[in-house]
Design a protein that fits this description.
Blueprint lengths: L1 H6 L2 E9 L1 H13 L8 H15 L5 E4 L2 E4 L5 E7 L2 E3 L2 E2 L7 H16 L13 E5 L18 E5 L3 E7 L2 E15 L5 H16 L6
Parallel strand pairs: 4-7, 7-8
Antiparallel strand pairs: 1-10, 2-3, 4-5, 4-6, 8-10, 9-10
Helix pairs in contact: 3-4, 3-5
């Protein structure tokens, strides 16, 4: 982490997201489609992020001594809080996984991380890390990049906040998403487009496979 902060030019971008549609989807999957457990907001974010990276291959890069290098496939890491500190199990081939598969993997990976039973295969290379700080009661987090990853997405807690829609205030469950970028690989414009499109998709989400 010290080397990352010293050598990697970090750029931070924040956006507030109305999570009403995400919460409605979770409820629909459990009550309407009889899922045993609803997917967590983190699982839904991982799924949507994966789709975005598939559609935007220019973001699916890593940093090498020769400069930015394209990656094949999308692998997503999820930071898990354990008694020994943060651990980041990685979901390989995330672009081939359904939302239900991602949700099951995430629950299993979190349990194994906290039981210190992860394997080396769980800790492979990744395109992006999702770090959900909501369980810690945190609204906003500017996380440190794990080189050679190009970015890490921190997800704050969902809380009722006043938003303005069509000139009128409304109270909505809202979360702050904070994206940390390696400026050697991705600039502010690329990061902003990624983050705002992620927000738009989460706010309009209806169903996922």
């Amino acid at each position: 982490m010290q080397q990352s902060k010293r050598d990697v030019p970090h750029l931070y971008l924040d956006v507030d997201v109305d999570m009403s549609a995400v919460q409605n989807l979770r409820e629909h999957l459990q009550t309407g489609l009889s899922w045993p457990k609803p997917p967590s907001a983190t699982a839904i974010i991982v799924h949507v992020v994966t789709r975005l990276l598939v559609e935007r291959p220019e973001l699916n890069v890593t940093y090498a001594d020769t400069g930015p290098t394209s990656r094949d496939g999308v692998s997503i890491g999820v930071a898990i809080d354990t008694l020994a500190g943060l651990v980041v199990p990685v979901l390989p081939g995330a672009d081939d996984r359904s939302l239900q598969e991602i949700a099951v993997w995430l629950r299993d990976a979190a349990e194994r991380a906290r039981e210190f039973s992860l394997k080396w295969d769980d800790l492979g290379p990744k395109t992006l890390v999702v770090y959900d700080v909501a369980p810690l009661g945190i609204d906003r987090c500017h996380a440190i990049i794990d080189p050679p990853d190009p970015m890490i997405l921190a997800v704050g807690r969902i809380a009722d906040r006043v938003l303005v829609e069509n000139g009128r205030p409304k109270v909505s469950p809202t979360a702050t998403l904070s994206l940390s970028l390696d400026h050697r690989v991705l600039d502010a414009s690329a990061g902003a487009r990624f983050l705002t499109e992620l927000r738009d998709r989460l706010e309009s989400i209806v169903a996922l496979e």
